[in-house]
Every structure is written in structure tokens, then in C-alpha cells.
TrEMBL record:
Record-level GO cellular component terms: cytosol
Keyword Metal-binding applies: no
InterPro entries: HTH-type_LysR_regulators, LysR_HTH_N, LysR_subst-bd, WH-like_DNA-bd_sf, WH_DNA-bd_sf
Keyword flag Cell inner membrane: no
Keyword line: DNA-binding, Transcription, Transcription regulation
Source taxon at top rank: Bacteria
Pfam families cross-referenced by the UniProt entry: HTH_1 (PF00126), LysR_substrate (PF03466)
Organism from which the protein derives: Rhodoplanes roseus
Family: Belongs to the LysR transcriptional regulatory family.
Ranges where the HTH lysR-type domain occurs: 19-76
Full protein name: HTH lysR-type domain-containing protein
Amino acid sequence: MSGVYSQSLIQSFLPVMSVDFRDLRYFLKIADLGHIGRAAEALHVTQPALSKCITRLEDGYRVRLFERAGRGIVLTEAGQRLAERLRVVEHDLQDIRREVSELGRGVAGLVRVGCAGSIASFVIPKICRILREQAPQIHLLIDVALDVVLQDALRNGALDVTVSPARLTTANDGIATTPLFADTVVVVGRSGHPLSRKTATLKEMSKYGWVLPLPSVSTRRWLEKVFLQSDLPPPEAVVTTRLLLSAPKILVETDLLAFVSRLNIGSGRDNRGIVEIPNVQTTMERTMDIGCRANAYLSPATRYFIDVLQKHGPDVSASDRTHCG
């Protein structure tokens, strides 16, 4: 959301009432928890103070914002609309506070980064080395999670930037993306795997168990579709994991297969002994993207991190792919 829109939205409150941003903050907490008592505990205020807050808002807007539901309260339709708008304004106010407080500090501060497991393992460590050399006052908070979780956190303002696979749908979802580098997802197994010295067929692969992510993950859906299109059952998930960070170590100890980024093969000490099981049909090309909340304020530290990532990220991935070859 642009600052102009946020300003007009805030100004729209003024003819109706004298805005007390504390009341708006209290309102959002009550809306989140659905209970005045729990909201009072979380905010360290009294329940009567929150009840008066609700009364002031409802009198100001001349509409009911809450209604009772069991032992708690829920938002009315008008309350839901107000909460949606206020959360956007709250994010913009947080951006304003950060921008003002960071003026004059230069390249310093915390950057909250969300990323895919392969990025965390093979790209972020080398970016950290560069940052320590060039901008030691930048601190990183790394969150490794599924793409959909990272996207929600980015939209909600919990993250400053994400590095993850390109999304299938990007229209009007509040996230701006920039391509970082091309990535390839392949089938892998231990170096002594019965299929490791040949170009394995899908039928041969289907005889082995797999380490796979959750069924909702796009790479798993893509792989299952490949097998189904060849009239074969989808790969059997012997081990299902939210993140595939542990997959290489599992593969080393078993004859299971996995479907992971080529970045995982041979480039890290923990992953020695993991090799590609080549097959054109099971080779998935994708792009890793940098994501930011559209029109959001980016601190100098965040901009510097993105600049370093854009400059050195493709080199890191190319180096790892070379070692894999």
C-alpha cells in the first residue's frame, strides 16, 4: 500500500472521530483474541478500559463492531472491514517508525529473512560471510519455512524479504518479486544406490520409497504428476517432512530417494555421498525469487542485503552447480 493511500485512509477517520491510535491498537488485539479478558491480560490493561475503548469506537463510527458469541465476542461485518483496514495502516505505521529511527544510522540493523531450506543451507552462509566483511553492523534473523508460510509472513509484516521458489500466481497478492537465479530440482539418492550408475526409468524409481515434503508442496505435486502421466502410481512417501533439510542424511543411511534442488548435491559436507539419479522426466526447472511486500518501506540494511544477494547469489548457485557436475 502506498503512503498516499495510507494517509487518505487515516484522514478518513478524522471527520468521524478524534482518532486515538491506542484505541485502534486495543481494538485489533480484541479482534485477534475474541475475548476482552484475554486481550486485557495481553495488553496489561483492565477489562473496563477495553470496554470503554469499544464503546468509544462504536459511538464514533455509529456502528456495532462486536457481537457476543458464546463466552467471547466476534467481529461484525463492519468490525471485520475496520480490522482489515487498520492492519494495513498498522503495518505502514511500523514502517514509518522504522524509517525515522534508522535515518542517519547508515547500513546497520536487523533484516528478517525468510527462505527455502536449500537457500538457508547453501546461499545464506556465503552471503553472511560477505556481510560480515562489508557490513558487520547488519544482523540477520533467518526463518526457514514452506513457501506459503513465508508469503503469509511477508504480507503480514513479520518478514522483510524472502528468498524462495517463484510462485505460480502473483497477481494482486501484495508481494513484489525479482528473479534471483535459475534452479533445478532432481531425484537424488546415496552414491551407492542401485540406480546411481545409470539413467533410471520412472518404473525403476517407483520401486523405491521416498523422502518427500508435505502433499501441498508444489515440487511434490509436480513429481506426482510426472508419474501419473506415465500411468505409474505416485512415489511412495516413506518419510514425509515439513522441510527437507534432513533428507540427505536419511538418504545416506537408506535406499530411499528424494526430490531436491541440485544445490544439495555434493556442495556441502553433510551431503557428500548424495548423487543425482538422472532422468529428463524428473528434472524440474524453476526460478528462485527475492520477495518483498509491495510498496513497503525497506530499511537501508534490507536494501543492502538485497543488493549483496543479487550480486553474489547467482555466483553462489553457479559455483554449487559446477561442483555437482
